[in-house]
C-alpha cells in the first residue's frame, strides 16, 4: 500500500513515493537553511540511508540530541533552538525530524515555536512514531515526568513513512509500536484487531499494509475532531492509566523504564477491566484482550502503594476537567465511549485483575 493519506494540512506519504515528493520539494523551494534533527540512534542507524535517498547532496546542518524519553524536555528544546540560531536559521529555514516519537514530537515543537514557526517534515523511524505520531499535529515535550504537558497543535508539511527503518529496531521497540496498532483495532476496527491478535511474529517487512491501516484509522478520527474536543478522545484508550504508569516508572530509579507501548498495554488491560464495570464490555472480551496483550508484553510488578502514586499522577492528565479524571473506555470491540469517571477502589481492582 503506497497511496498518500491526506491529513488536514499535512500528508503522509509512503516508501519510494515519499522520497520522490521530498526531492521535488527541496528542488522547488529555495529554503535558506536545511536542518536535520536526529538522536544518537538515528544518527548512527538511519542518517546515511536517508541521505542516500536524496537526488543530490543538499547541505544539511545536522543537530543531534540524546536518545530517550528522559530527554524530551524543554532543556533539550533550548539547546536545539540555540543551535538553529547559531547556525543562521531564519523563518525561511526547513527542519527535518528523523527519528522516533521523541524526535518528531520535540522537533515539531521546536519548529512551531522558533521565530513563531518554521516549516518542518517528520520522518518517523520507529513503528510507534509511524502509527501514532505521524498524524494529528501534536507536538510537545514532557514537564519533568509528566507526559506531553507542553506543546502545540502544528501540522508538518509532510510525513514520510519508510518501513525500511524498522529493520534497525530491537524487538521491544517493535512491540511498543504494536500496542498503538492494537489500540486502533480495539477502538475502531474489529477485523483489524483480530488480524493483529493472530500474528505469529512481528516481521518488519510484513507490516506495511498494517501500518497504512493504522494511520488511516487515526486520520479518520482526527479529521472529525482536530483539537480533541470530543471523538478524538477515543485515541486515549489505555493512555490515562498508561501515561501515568509510564511517568511513574520513568522517575523511579529502582524501576526499569517502560517504553510507551509497554505502559499503554498495561493501561489497556486495566481500562478494559474498568469497561466491564462501567460501560458494558463483556467479561469474555476482557479475557480476550488480556490474553492478547499478555502474549506480547511481559507482566510488570506494580504494588497497591505504587498505584496510589500512579493515581496521583493521573491528576495531571490533559483530558481531565473540573478535577475529575476522564477515561476513554469500551462498550465493545470497536465501540468506544469517552469522558467516563472511575473511582479509586475500582482502579485498584483493575490492578489486581492485571496482576492475576
UniProtKB/TrEMBL annotation:
<feature type="domain" description="3-dehydroquinate synthase N-terminal">
    <location>
        <begin position="63"/>
        <end position="175"/>
    </location>
</feature>
<dbReference type="InterPro" id="IPR050071">
    <property type="entry name" value="Dehydroquinate_synthase"/>
</dbReference>
<feature type="domain" description="3-dehydroquinate synthase C-terminal">
    <location>
        <begin position="177"/>
        <end position="320"/>
    </location>
</feature>
<keyword id="KW-0456">Lyase</keyword>
<dbReference type="GO" id="GO:0005737">
    <property type="term" value="C:cytoplasm"/>
</dbReference>
<comment type="function">
    <text>Catalyzes the conversion of 3-deoxy-D-arabino-heptulosonate 7-phosphate (DAHP) to dehydroquinate (DHQ).</text>
</comment>
<dbReference type="GO" id="GO:0009423">
    <property type="term" value="P:chorismate biosynthetic process"/>
</dbReference>
<dbReference type="Pfam" id="PF01761">
    <property type="entry name" value="DHQ_synthase"/>
</dbReference>
<keyword id="KW-0862">Zinc</keyword>
<dbReference type="Pfam" id="PF24621">
    <property type="entry name" value="DHQS_C"/>
</dbReference>
<dbReference type="InterPro" id="IPR056179">
    <property type="entry name" value="DHQS_C"/>
</dbReference>
<dbReference type="InterPro" id="IPR030963">
    <property type="entry name" value="DHQ_synth_fam"/>
</dbReference>
<dbReference type="InterPro" id="IPR016037">
    <property type="entry name" value="DHQ_synth_AroB"/>
</dbReference>
<keyword id="KW-0520">NAD</keyword>
<dbReference type="GO" id="GO:0000166">
    <property type="term" value="F:nucleotide binding"/>
</dbReference>
<protein>
    <recommendedName>
        <fullName>3-dehydroquinate synthase</fullName>
        <ecNumber>4.2.3.4</ecNumber>
    </recommendedName>
</protein>
<keyword id="KW-0547">Nucleotide-binding</keyword>
<dbReference type="GO" id="GO:0009073">
    <property type="term" value="P:aromatic amino acid family biosynthetic process"/>
</dbReference>
<dbReference type="InterPro" id="IPR030960">
    <property type="entry name" value="DHQS/DOIS_N"/>
</dbReference>
<keyword id="KW-0479">Metal-binding</keyword>
<dbReference type="GO" id="GO:0046872">
    <property type="term" value="F:metal ion binding"/>
</dbReference>
<dbReference type="GO" id="GO:0003856">
    <property type="term" value="F:3-dehydroquinate synthase activity"/>
</dbReference>
<keyword id="KW-0170">Cobalt</keyword>
